[in-house]
Design goal:
The protein is of the alpha+beta class. It has six domains: 3-140, no CATH class; 154-235; 243-423, no CATH class; 434-483 and 492-671 and 724-773, 2-Layer Sandwich (Nucleotidyltransferase, domain 5); 840-1067, no CATH class; 1081-1149, no CATH class. The chain contains 30 helices and 41 strands. The strands form eleven sheets. It has a six-stranded antiparallel beta sheet, with helices on both faces. A five-stranded mixed beta sheet has the order 19-18-17-20-21, with helices on both faces. Strands 25-24-23-22-26 form a five-stranded antiparallel beta sheet. It is globular, with a radius of gyration of 38 Å. It starts with a strand and ends with a helix. One of its GO terms (molecular function) is nucleic acid binding. Residues 785-804 are annotated as: Disordered.
Length: 1150
């Protein structure tokens, strides 16, 4: 409503009063306008939104202006309606708009230039306030998490106590400014956790205080304690690098550590200062008893028997054991030091190493264990244990308690026996998941991805509940996959922290095309932790986009920045886009010299490790080579979780995540598995599980990745039962890895072959894509997904007899003539995709289509698409039907099964249940021009997809529809659906969606292109963004990747978007990009036309036109139905967009 109706007398009074009273600013608003910029001294930026918001909100509340920030506050009508139906300006609106615009202008004056473009198009103060809150709220939460992480890891290190406390206060203040708070008790805990071991006694006394302690008191105590620690360190004499152990007396019967009162040492015999037990006068007097209330206890005095228990020793500086088996990692000790024990003697050290102390909740690390056969007890150093595991140890007269300082949970409790505190090793459980008999050593070797014997036994020794046979065993898969030359000397230089240096390289092309079209992979290796991230790719040009996403992910995950990237000189790494991106973010790019692969040796060796492990996984289970991406991802997953000699026998996972990996969930790659079928996907008599093949683990799903061979689909489930002694591919007729595929040299370990202008990590000349297809077994390339594993179709005309001689001919290496290769590609792909179902009854027979329909129905319900009402008596009720479409990747492989509920809009009546229907779509010339511009300026072209796009458009008409088949309401089966959203099939649905979507785009600054309304342009002084719309598919490109990402984020807040990455398929046209060319093709669409005409079994021709004129046509009647003929001609007309060779023939036939 633009006007309100008033009585004549009231209206005249209001007009008369407004004529004499022009809108004026209130005194409170004048105060705010004159002081707001001085009050908010720091303009709004990306980092100070909470502080800025707090200041603006307080000054508005103080002056009664907070209502202008409320978007729900009603706005006065712009005009008033007289009784004679004429309008007059509303003085209340004039006063409101004056106040609001002045306040908005004052608020904009406190916003920095980098943020101001986000709000320039907004009208009111409330809109500016709400937009800024939406944009920066999530960023604020991320900053709080980052600051708390820094607070958790802060430590005193080499700084002074005052600086350390100031750093903590600064972090706490920043968290408070971000809208969160840290409790005072947590601040005290962070302060104590960051103190070094020299403050251990101080920390113990603070934690055991009965009275609460505030921060001011703690600051005072710490400043004083710093002086004492520095004084003690200056006066104390070192103990000549010797190790002490075995329950020395602490004075007057107490176990407290107490400060040293002088430079003299305490004798362990007479308890006097100034000498040690070796120089004591009473050393030879066995009857001497010191004058004290408690006799000091020395475990070494009792040498009668060896104990398997560990004893807690608060006086020991290192862990001590008599049993070498307690060391999981052991090294001979070559030093001359000894261990001074309670009776004054010094015993020799034979070995040193590391071990684990199992507890019911987790394993505790024992990082410094000394082995001496001369003692008979195992001792745990309290100081070493608490420092290595971040725990607190509390002693009581009845026992002791271990408490985790991070979670504050009790992790272990033990008794006090005869004045000592023993830890009994846990009994080995026979039913634990990790406890396997020695006969199952091979099983765990397979589960862990075939590690070396040394690494395998190292893992077993660190996991006390995993028992294997320590004898050497022979693994044939390892021998075949890992044979190599002698090891060269490696560089010992390593980065000091995570992300200081990232190694990267590309491997490929693979000898077999995967189901999803993958031919390459790129890996990134952190030099410090040696953790590896691997990403399969369809083409090398994807490296840039993968690195951009990887950088965002890993820097957010680790709260660190990538400082240096080391690669070879391949074209994918020296591209303009990647070079500019690295310079923009301050990342140093180190490029290895030509013919010098050793300079990128970490990545080269990682290739070898990954591929060798992949070969072992594939060979053990006889998995076909087309599953190589799953195998390399699984290999990388396992490599990251096993110890490495390059990281001091600590796994990369532990170095990156600061916790030991778990092995309980590991299963053998390629083994049989039985995932649970959900109840809604099966009827009551169907089996509850189905036979699948285990293909690895997932980072996105907390479950196992299983391949259903019967239905040719991937299932992620956590409810899985395994048979790790059964390998479905081993005896399956669909597996022909060794018979029908010649192993390509590309699948061997990379060698050092440098090719100028390309990545020398390809290591062999890259064959044409067609030669790669030649290496794929024909029985894999033409299997009908709906058929069983044994039902295959062969192409005898392309089968060639293998020569038995040793000469490397083209037929042996798969390098055949180009024409035959291309024909093989077309023939295989034309027969690979079955026709989609046309009826509900047909689709209901397939599990995939039933799940697709259920997913679509659930999405409709969540969008509030309709309400069930009684059938109207005087309105038309539209029918509806299910349509089915198999969506394909750019290479023609199956991407997903899509079911869509479509209203039968052909029964709609103009003016009754629809009016306007026109909706513009993208034109092919616009696509070509847009791609040419992006190619010229080297912009990335990204593709977006809107989920259930039409459901975002609301209906203004009243439309009724019958309930969908198969999903009728059981309570009201005769009700009909009253539509609220523009469902697919309605005549006005495309227009409603287009209007809704473009309205949002124009609200954020986009403008329509005059020559093509489906193209919208966002342009400022230095930014140009182009967005092309084709129904629910979008292409976006421009000169600012940051702005593009901001736009995508804004679209995600309004619509459900899918970011598909670099554009590869748009309007049924496949898009493939190289360095300076866009290739457009319609290969899957051509295959669809062949199937529609039932000509997919025919041999291909290089020229579709009759070479003799006039043309002579066959008298046979190929197509008897005119409708089918016209449909095929129309489809061929669309195919001419990218295949102009057939344009003459198509137009001649049309």
């Amino acid at each position: 409503m633009e006007a309100s109706t008033l009585s004549q007398s009231h209206l005249e009074e209001q007009i008369a009063s407004s004529a004499s009273d022009a809108p004026i600013l209130s005194s409170s608003l004048k105060f705010v306008l004159s002081n707001l910029k001085n009050t908010v001294q720091n303009p709004l930026s990306r980092d100070n939104y909470p502080l800025w918001r707090s200041q603006i909100l307080k000054i508005c509340k103080a002056n009664g202006l907070e209502s202008f920030l409320d978007p729900l506050r009603p706005i006065p009508e712009k005009s008033l309606l007289r009784s004679d139906r004429t309008t007059t300006p509303n003085p209340l609106y004039a006063q409101w708009i004056l106040n609001d615009q002045n306040l908005a202008a004052a608020m904009c004056a406190t916003i920095s230039a980098s943020i101001l473009p986000y709000v320039l198009q907004l009208e009111t103060t409330a809109e500016i306030w709400a937009t800024l809150q939406t944009r920066f709220q999530s960023t604020n939460r991320s900053k709080v998490i980052q600051l708390k992480n820094e607070l958790h890891h802060i430590s005193l290190k080499n700084s002074t106590m005052v600086q350390y406390l100031n750093d903590i206060k600064s972090l706490v203040d920043q968290i408070a400014a971000a809208g969160a708070r840290v409790d005072e008790e947590d601040i005290i805990l962070y302060i104590l956790n960051g103190l070094p071991s020299t403050y251990q006694a101080f920390k113990t006394s603070i934690r055991t205080m009965t009275q609460p302690l505030n921060l001011d008191q703690l600051y005072s105590f710490l400043i004083s304690e710093e002086i004492h620690v520095a004084s003690d360190a200056a006066r104390s004499a070192p103990l000549d690098n010797s190790n002490t152990a075995l329950f020395v007396n602490r004075g007057r019967g107490r176990r407290g550590r107490g400060r040293s009162q002088g430079t003299s040492q305490i004798c362990q015999i007479c308890l006097k200062k100034g000498h040690t037990a070796t120089d004591c006068w009473h050393g030879l007097n066995v009857q001497y008893v010191p004058q004290t209330r408690q006799q000091p206890r020395a475990l070494a005095a009792d040498q009668s028997r060896a104990s398997t228990e560990w004893y807690l020793d608060s006086g020991a500086s290192s862990h001590l054991t008599h049993n070498l088996d307690n060391l999981s990692i052991s090294n001979p000790y070559n030093g001359s030091d000894g261990v001074t024990i309670g009776d004054g003697r010094s015993v020799s050290i034979s070995n040193s190493g590391k071990g684990l102390l199992p507890t019911p909740s987790r394993k505790l690390h024992l990082s410094k264990i000394l082995h001496s056969p001369e003692i008979h007890y195992n001792l745990i150093s309290i100081s070493q244990l608490t420092r290595d595991n971040n725990i607190a140890v509390t002693f009581t007269p009845s026992g002791f308690v271990f408490k985790d300082l991070t979670t504050h949970q009790v992790i272990f409790q033990g008794p006090c026996r005869d004045g000592l505190y023993p830890i009994q090793p846990p009994q080995k459980s026979k039913n634990h998941a990790l406890t396997v008999p020695n006969s199952n050593t091979t099983l765990w070797h397979n589960r862990l991805g075939h590690p070396s014997h040394r690494i395998f036994h190292s893992i077993a020794s660190c996991n006390s509940q995993l028992h294997i046979d320590k004898k050497e065993f022979v693994c044939h898969a390892c021998n075949k996959a890992k044979q190599h030359k002698a090891v060269l000397e490696l560089s010992r230089n390593r980065a000091k922290s995570v992300l200081d240096l990232i190694h990267s390289d590309v491997w490929g092309p693979a000898p077999a095309l995967s189901n999803s079209g993958m031919l390459y992979y790129v890996l990134f290796i952190d030099d410090y932790s040696r953790f590896t991230w691997l990403f399969p790719m369809r083409q090398k040009s994807e490296v840039f986009n993968i690195f951009v996403n990887f950088k965002s992910y890993i820097e957010n995950f680790t709260s660190s920045k990538i400082k240096c990237l080391r690669t070879d000189g391949g074209g994918e790494f020296v591209s303009t886009s990647l070079s500019q991106f690295l310079k923009q973010h301050g990342i140093l790019h180190q490029i290895s010299c030509p013919y010098t692969p050793k300079q990128n040796g970490v990545a080269e060796r990682k290739h070898r490790h990954v591929i060798e492990t992949t070969r072992s996984l594939l060979d053990t289970a006889s998995v076909p080579y087309k599953y190589w991406p799953d195998a390399v991802l699984t290999a990388t997953y396992l490599i990251n979780r096993i110890p490495s000699p390059n990281t001091d026998n600590v796994s990369p996972y532990e170095l990156l995540n600061h916790k030991a990996p778990s092995y309980a969930h590991l299963r053998t790659f390629g083994s049989a598995c039985f995932p649970l079928i959900p109840a809604n996907a099966r009827h009551k008599l169907q089996p509850k599980a189905q036979l699948c093949v285990f293909l690895g683990y997932s980072d996105n799903y907390k479950g196992y990745k299983c391949c259903d061979l019967h239905n040719n689909k991937i299932i992620f489930s956590r409810h899985v039962t395994f048979d790790e002694n059964c390998f479905p591919f081993l005896n399956s007729s669909s597996n022909h890895n060794t018979e029908n595929v010649q192993i390509s040299p590309l699948f061997l370990t990379p060698t050092s072959v440098y090719q100028p202008g390309t990545s020398h990590t390809s290591h062999t000349p890259t064959p044409a894509p067609s030669s790669i297809i030649q290496q794929i077994p024909s029985t894999q390339a033409i299997v009908n997904p709906e058929a069983s594993d044994q039902q295959t179709t062969t192409a005898p005309q392309f089968q060639k007899q293998q020569a038995t001689h040793q000469m490397l001919t083209r037929s042996k290496i798969g390098s055949l003539k180009p024409t035959v290769r291309l024909n093989l590609i077309h023939h295989h792909q034309a027969t690979n995709n079955p026709a989609d179902p046309t009826t509900y009854a047909e689709a209901n027979k397939s599990v995939e289509w039933r799940q697709a329909m259920a997913a679509e129905f659930l999405a409709l319900q969540q969008q509030g698409t309709w309400d069930l009402v009684q059938p109207p008596s005087d309105a038309t009720v539209l029918g509806c039907k299910w349509t089915y479409r198999t969506k394909l990747h750019s290479d023609g492989s199956v991407a997903k099964h899509k079911a869509r509920l479509v209203a039968q809009g052909n029964h709609q009546e103009y003016g009754l249940d629809y009016t306007e229907t026109f909706s513009p779509v993208a034109k092919l010339p616009t696509i070509r021009i847009l791609l040419a511009i992006a190619l010229h300026y080297d912009w990335t072209v990204q593709q977006l997809d809107v989920a259930n796009a039409f459901l975002h458009g609301s209906l203004t008409e009243t439309v009724y529809m019958h309930q969908p088949q198969g999903f009728k309401d059981t309570v009201h089966p005769n009700y009909v659906c009253r539509l609220h959203k523009a469902i697919y099939g309605l005549k006005q649905a495309p227009r409603q969606w287009y209007n809704t979507f473009t309205s949002f785009l124009t609200s954020i600054g986009f403008k329509h292109c005059q020559s093509d309304p489906s193209l919208l342009i966002f342009r400022t002084s230095n930014i140009s963004i182009f967005l092309l719309i084709y129904v629910d598919d979008l292409l976006i490109t421009g000169n600012s990747s940051v702005k593009i990402q901001d736009i995508i984020n804004m679209l995600n807040t309004k619509f459900t978007m899918k970011h598909l990455g670099a554009a590869n398929s748009f309007m049924g046209i496949q898009i493939k990009r190289t360095a300076d060319i866009f290739f457009l093709s319609q290969k899957p669409y051509a295959n669809f036309i062949l199937q529609m005409a039932e000509l997919h079994h025919c041999n291909p021709l290089s020229n579709p036109t009759c070479t003799k004129m006039p043309a002579v046509f066959s008298p046979d009647k190929i197509l008897g139905e005119p409708i089918t003929y016209r449909r095929i001609i129309g489809s061929l007309q669309y195919l001419c967009l990218t295949i102009p060779d057939i344009a003459y023939s198509v137009n001649y036939l049309s």
